[in-house]
Amino acid sequence: MRKLALLSSVLVCVAALSAPAQQPPAPSAAPAASIEPPSGERLLMEVQAEGIQNYSCVTENGASTWKFQGPEAKLTTSDGKLAGSHFAGPTWRLLDSSEVKGSMAASKPAPEAGAVPWLLVKVASHNGNGKLSAADYVTRTNTKGGVAPQSGCDAAHQGVAAPVPYSATYRFYGK
Q1: Cβ-based neighbour number of residue 170 at 10 Å
Q2: CB 174 within 8 A of CB 44
Q3: The whole model's pTM is what?
Q4: Among residues 60, 34, 29, 68, which one has the least CA distance to residue 148?
Q5: Least confident of 20-24, 127-131, 143-147, 155-159
Q6: Cα dist from 61 to 58, 120, 155, whole Å
Q7: What is the reported pLDDT for 33?
Q8: Among 90, 93, 105, which Cα is nearest to 35's?
Q9: Which of 30, 37, 98, 166 could form an S-S bond across to 173 if both were Cys, CB 3.0 to 4.6 Å?
Q10: E strands along 23-109, which residues?
């Protein structure tokens, strides 16, 4: 019985040595950037956005393309009450007069086709005193719509605007 077990082990080793070398797995696509705020940040507020992503038909490098101009959205609380607005900058302004402007820190594709990416935005400036006064980061998730049109922008349509409906969840984080 011991001889049979030993012979079996030897055969497994010989088979492994005579097998062609295994290539390491091909690198997969780079993982999506994390849109989580840094550790130590806590959720200050969450709002829903309903509005439009504005695009304009322009010529860049000899080709006509839809260029993003900025959002226009109303912000509401979970119970549907108006909380403020979101507009170019990107800027968020609440009814309590607090306002933040930010710059994109990270982005990852939205899971839903035709939806603008999910974002992590670092707050660059504050105005006013209120709920957003302590905000350091903003995330955009749960997006629907908002992607630039696939057609309709050519030399004959320069300057034409394309407001595209979108919705999203915005969360504000601070220490």
Answers
A1: 23
A2: yes
A3: 0.80
A4: 68
A5: 20-24
A6: 10, 29, 13
A7: 72
A8: 105
A9: 37
A10: 42-60, 63-76, 82-87, 91-94, 99-108
